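# step 3/5: fold
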Amino acid sequence: MNNIKTMSNEADLAIKKANSFIAYRPRSISEVENKLLLSFNENVVKNVICNLKEQDILNDLRFAKLWVTSRCLSNQKSTQYIKYELKQKGISNENIEVALSEVDNDENAYNAGAKKIKALTNLPKEISEKKLESFLRRKGFNLSTTKSTIKKLLEENE
């Protein structure tokens, strides 16, 4: 009897901890599971995760879509960079592909570059081109996307 009470109490604590963790920002199932495993045993964590999934509080596809939207709008990261981040958060390849299906990588590169080029207008063309290339490459864009974006932006700003 006392053992059942302890398990129930532990589950309640785990649910509170999970809800607190999720309240800060949306989380993937893997993130919540890893956080809970630091403080609770595996059976309790499995039950809590199952409970949160049933209540649709945890949903990896929804999380992936929110993450993609956030990373595209605020940081203009490349799809390759976002894909890497989502894999780190334990999202399945299938959910990653669905979440990234509507993202235009060239448009993201253009938007990021257009924002950056405004700060580079007073510099010589060669220097601003190098800085823009470095900036876009750090955002995760491949060389061909970076080069075509720079060409387009420089043509527009002449």
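# step 4/5: annotate
The chain has three domains: 2-58, 61-100, 105-156.
# step 5/5: archive (pending)
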